Amino acid sequence: MLRASTYLGAILGFLIISFFSDNFGRKFTLVLSWGFCALGSLLVTFGFNITIIGVGLFLSGFGSDAAINITYLYFCEISNNKIRQRYSVIIQIFFTIGAFVATTLFFVIPNWRIIWGLVVTFPAIIILLVMYYYL
Questions:
Q1: In angstroms, rounded to a whole number, what is the distance separating the alpha carbons of residues 22 and 106?
Q2: Structural domains in the chain?
């Protein structure tokens, strides 16, 4: 049941954040969605009970899944035809590498909070800061 909160957040994130993306612009929506992802990841990393972790998983799913799709859209809109496909492939490769590293670390490090902090929280905060200051 706890893991389902991520998928519920993702469904609601797609519905709500897509409205913001169309009406308020991609840049604002990218910062907003990565902000939800970073906040949710921090709650999961430092949550002290099951309710806080569930809320964190919900917020993480709410922000991250929508942000990935909006990132694809944003790069397709700002790039020309020659490099558009290259950018899309590079984004997908890095998400795949991240999933592989996370899965590998779960077998190596027994504490899941350390792995979540390294693989999810830290990159989400970096992406949020980059999006906020450079877009």
A1: 37
A2: 4-134 (1.20.1250.20)
User: pTM of the prediction?
Assistant: 0.86
Q: Could you tell me the sign of the dihedral formed by the alpha carbons of 28, 17, 24, 98, in that order? A: positive
Question: Radius of gyration of the chain from Cα atoms?
Answer: 15
Q: Quick one: which of 67, 3, 8 has its CA closest to 35?
A: 67
Q: Closest Cα partner for 131 from 45, 36, 42?
A: 36
Q: At what angle do helices 122-134 and 26-46 cross, to 10 degrees?
A: 150
Query: For 3-17, how does the pLDDT look when each residue is reduced to its tens digit (9 = 90+)?
Result: 899 999 999 998 999
Record the tokens describing residue 123, joined without a space.
């990159």
* Residues 37, 124 contacting (CB under 8 angstroms): yes
